[in-house]
Specification:
The chain is an all-alpha fold and 144 residues long. The protein is built from one helix and no strands.
Length: 144
């Protein structure tokens, strides 16, 4: 079997020892190392670019989450204020209903006292004078 071998060498060197000897085999090994290094560099660049994309995506997600957290805080604040306004409304409504009930009781009480005094005066006048009592009829229809 015949092997092809290319030898390049420096025969006469000032030191007396031969310089660099390049053969086809060393050239193949050298080119293989270069191709492998380029492939590794390409893979490394690919991995680094993917990591950069992932990093930028994470940064964008962090910014979006900060915005959502800010919005969530505003929503919580609005919810608290709404709860306060609703409670204030309920309290005012209760106070108004209580005051209306008290006014209704007062009006009914005054009306009953007035009715009692009116009847008392009517009885007195009927007893001491010739006053005739009339029954009061409520007219709910307007006069024409």
């Amino acid at each position: 079997m015949k092997t092809n071998q290319l030898s390049i060498g420096v025969i006469n060197s000032p030191n007396g020892s031969p310089g660099i000897v390049i053969t086809l085999e060393t050239t193949g090994i050298f080119l293989g190392i270069l191709v492998s290094a380029c492939m590794l560099a390409g893979v490394a660049i690919n991995v680094i670019s993917k990591m950069n994309r992932i990093s930028s995506s994470i940064t964008q997600i962090e910014e979006a989450l900060k915005g959502y957290a800010s919005n969530a805080e505003q929503i919580r604040d609005l919810d608290k204020r709404l709860d306060l306004h609703l409670q204030e409304y309920v309290n005012r409504k209760d106070v108004v209903q209580m005051v209306m009930g008290q006014l209704d009781q007062k009006i009914n009480h005054k009306f009953k006292r007035l009715l009692f005094y009116t009847r008392d005066i009517q009885r007195y006048m009927q007893k001491n004078t010739d006053f005739k009592m009339r029954e009061y009829e409520e007219n709910t229809q307007p006069e024409e």
